[in-house]
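Problem 3 from the worked examples.
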Amino acid sequence: MPQTSPVPFPNSALQRFSVKNGANNDWGSFGAAAVRMAEQEQFDQMVALVNGEMAAVPLAEAIKQRKKVPLDSDKILTAREIGICLGDTP
């Protein structure tokens, strides 16, 4: 029987992220907010969690300053656990 995804999805990783960061990090909410933005023709913007709420942030503002994430942070660990390649390992 074929797998539906080449990368197994560890729910525990996302649950740990949500619990550790104390926020409702419902990943589907980001996608839904992005669809609403497209429907409203809010282009050149990205969805961001601002003060616990979904918000449209201009891309120019989002990339104005480099934001560094520690390599041992839960966000990096979660990305690696779900198979995201960050370009720093073979």
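Problem 4, a separate protein:
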Amino acid sequence: MARVTAPNPEFSGSRFGVRFFNGRASTDDAIAIGRLLRAGYLVDDRGDRPVQTQDEPEPELTPEPEPEPEADQLDLESLTVRELVTLAGDRNIDLQGARRKSELIAAVRAAEGA
């Protein structure tokens, strides 16, 4: 039986069908163990018998996304208001007080230039 430790030591609940209490659980479910390992959980399988994980297909490798261009490289005027708000959210830019598209563009440029 493998002992599993959650990244959050206070976690109590279920993850991949494994019940945790105060960040700890035990399971023999090889599929769950594989998923927990990939999710960042620690697994100690030095129990009385080794844990064998089933071969799961390797996930397809996707190319790394291109880095987002800086605000001065983007044509901010061509973006919609929704796209500007999403861009600002992705970059943690404060838009408080910006109500018009021109104000959103100014806020993005100011934050990127800071």
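Solution to problem 4. The chain is about 30% helix and 15% strand. Confidence is low (pLDDT under 50) at residues 48-52.
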